[in-house]
Amino acid sequence: QKEVEQNSGPLSVPEGAIASLNCTYSDRGSQSFFWYRQYSGKSPELIMFIYSNGDKEDGRFTAQLNKASQYVSLLIRDSQPSDSATYLCAVNLDNTDKLIFGTGTRLQVFP
Amino acid sequence: EPEVTQTPSHQVTQMGQEVILRCVPISNHLYFYWYRQILGQKVEFLVSFYNNEISEKSEIFDDQFSVERPDGSNFTLKIRSTKLEDSAMYFCASSDSSSTGELFFGEGSRLTVL
Lengths: 111, 114
Known about the structure:
Chain A is mainly β. Chain A has strands at about 5, 10-15, 20-25, 30-40, 45-50, 55-60, 60-65, 70-75, 85-95, 100, 105-110. By secondary structure, chain B is mainly β. Chain B has no helices and eleven strands. The N and C termini of chain B lie far apart (about 35 Å). The mean pLDDT of chain B is about 95.
């Protein structure tokens, strides 16, 4: 069973802080890694994707991938109340076009 | 900005009835998907579709489910005989590439089976 694991939270951070969201995956064949944001009652929205080990930065967001440890994370700098949502980690295995999602981590940013 | 559109936004049906959920993917995308999310649970892959045929399907996507692209724009999910456990949010998604997984999701169709 190929799994993607996330802490369900909630993760509560004050406005302006760094929020750190973590994800582990079980299948070493995973090739592509994605972070989606999902507001309550809404559809997932792509935030970041990463394919190679290391860091990838896009604005206030940084994705980090460590394939040896089977670990991917998302850092949100200068967190805003509008960042409050559920963050879904998803992986894409080699030779498949489906995404396997984690259960998501609920982030709460308080003013 | 191009978007994936889905109809209906909410459908209530009786157990055993047939339901068709409709999607209009982004126009230049070639890969189409259906995912579902039962309330409070994870987003689950149902099926992927490319070049007018199913490219992959999950264990959830049994004989009660079918997909079709009846014309150049619509992509439909049909559930032949709905069960209570089919109650969920159904998301259509599209992509211009099968390898990157950069999916663009529609707003979803909430199905309630009574």
